[in-house]
Amino acid sequence: MEKTIAYMYLRLSRDDGDEGESNSIGNQRELIKSYADKAGFQIIKEYIDDGFTGSNFDRPDFKRMISDLEKKACKTIIVKDLSRFGRDYIESGKFLQKTFPQIGVRFISVNDNYDSDNADVNDTHLILPIKNFINDSYCRDISMKVKSSQKTKRQRGEFIGAFAPYGYKKNSKKKNHLVIDRNISHIVRKIFEMKVEGYSSKAIADELNRLGIQTPQAYKEDNGSNYSTGFSSNQSKWQAKMINRIIENRVYLGDLEQGKRTKLNYKSNKEIKVSQDDWIKVEGTHEAIVTETMFNVANKMMGRDILNRKTKPDFLAGLLYCADCGNQLVRRNQKTKNGQTIYYICGLYNRGKGCSRHSIKEEDILSSLNYILKQHIKYQEELFLRIRQTDLSKSEYDLDLDDLLAEKKKYETLRRSLYMDLEDELIDEEEFQSFRKSYQLKIKEVEQQILNRKKAYNDLEEILNSKENWLTGLEKYKNIESIDRQTLAFFVDRILVGEKDEEGRPRITVFFNDMEKLDILKRILKGAKKTKTSNLVSFNSMAIKVLSTEREGVALYG
């Protein structure tokens, strides 16, 4: 008796819980061969999708099989059961009830005792849809369980990514924990240091390429990982966007931010971005590569318009701003008979688009900064020495949020009153929408100020609990002869340069980092039981002005 030729289709998924031996590729093959021998079929070709989900039909060998079936060289498919064919009950139903009958394909599912050649109407139109629906529900249930398990691990601070971030590797003894990869961690630090020094991201990438440093992808591949990234696979050189991703990633602070993307649904591999508010963030999950100060300053510099220089940028890159228009100052060289004079002018003026010159010599501003920074460091040291001698507790200082809360309440009241004004026809619809938008914006701004203030107090708790560490950190800066770029960037947020006064002296205003925290510390000292207000009077008057408010800064004539 001549045997009927048939195709065999095998599938095993890594994500639907089918890793057991009963559903292994080998088991499926043996079961189908046994059935084929008894039922008079000759298997002429097998199609295998190993590691592909059954929730959709985007599988390479499945597509090849359908293409071959349409050529009508063979008209029979045999599978172990319906779940191996697919778990999407709608798409499975289309194939079994429409596509296969149209092209004359015979479909056999061994464990379901289903053969389309001798199935009755109930089998095809009632029993199969129910089984397909059950398979689809199973797939959805597994997907939900996997997502729930991943969420729990993320909330515990476990790293669940397939590959460790550049600069780290997975702990061989604890796979969900990151440890520093000492072979390349210095490259990560170099990237942050160069950004703090004022290099553009492109300049950093160019330097790494010049030094022959492997890209993250190349490094992983050389170490035996089938590595994939969000970048094009043919990118063998460092690029600015790679540098930016590293600098923005809080993993280098020892924190994990996971769940940034999610699959559209369990039937699709398409991923969508998740709102940053919904990311799962856990701090202190592993050893940091860079300090918080280094991280913050590098990210601040990345947000500023630093020129794409291939050589080292100027000392004040990303720090100098025009006090009138807010544009960055640009560096200029003027040749003189004694050499050259370096000075800065307003960037807007330099482009011929307005403002005024705001010219200042580099030597003048560096001299002023050297003095201001030394005084600021001295003040911080005195402040923390005073705190170390003071018995502080959280009950001895107020959160000082009453003014902000009152301001928020005021705008909320004004926003509510708009509805009555509109109803009484005191304002029209256009005015209503305009005022409403304005008040909502004000409320949002105040809420952010409240969050910032609370965060500042929480951060200060850490400072108060590690006074010695803070003073140790200041120790290396207090005896500096002249400031370097890194010291300047660590302490200074920005410098405003105003026009010259009647005597030809430019006015500069320096804004220091963490001024709000220092201002809070000053108020804490004033309110502490064992500290007298007069203790602050002996501090340098210029430094006291530093702490008065973030908006005021330090003013000094050159």
Q: Structurally, how many domains make up the residues?
A: 3
Q: What general outline do the C-alpha atoms trace?
A: elongated
Please state the CA-atom Rg, rounded to the nearest Å: 34 Å
* Range of strand content: 15-25%
Distance between the termini: 106 Å
- Average pLDDT across residues? 79
- Sheet of most strands: 5 strands, mixed
The count of strands amounts to 18
The number of helical elements comes to 18
Strand order of the biggest β-sheet: 2-1-3-4-5
Helix-residue proportion: 40-55%
How would you characterize the overall build of this protein?
By secondary structure, this protein is of the alpha/beta class. The chain has three domains: 4-153, 3-Layer(aba) Sandwich (Rossmann fold); 168-302, Hect, E3 ligase catalytic domain fold, CATH 3.90.1750.20; 329-557, no CATH class. Helix content is 46%, strand content 16%. The chain is built from 18 helices and 18 strands. It has helices spanning 25-39, 60-70, 82-85, 89-103, 121-155, 185-197, 201-210, 216-222, 240-248, 292-302, 347-350, 362-388, 402-423, 429-464, 467-478, 485-491, 515-527, 541-548, and strands at 4-12, 41-50, 76-79, 106-109, 114-115, 168-170, 178-180, 256-258, 261-263, 271-273, 280-282, 320-322, 329-336, 339-346, 360-361, 492-500, 506-512, 554-557. The strands form six sheets. Strands 2-1-3-4-5 form a five-stranded mixed β-sheet, sandwiched between helices. Strands 12-16-17-18 form a four-stranded mixed β-sheet. Strands 13-14-15 form a three-stranded antiparallel β-sheet. A hairpin with a 5-residue loop joins strand 16 (492-500) and strand 17 (506-512). The longest helix is centred in the C-terminal third of the chain and has 36 residues, at 429-464. One of its GO terms (molecular function) is sequence-specific DNA binding. Residues 5-157 form the Resolvase/invertase-type recombinase catalytic domain.
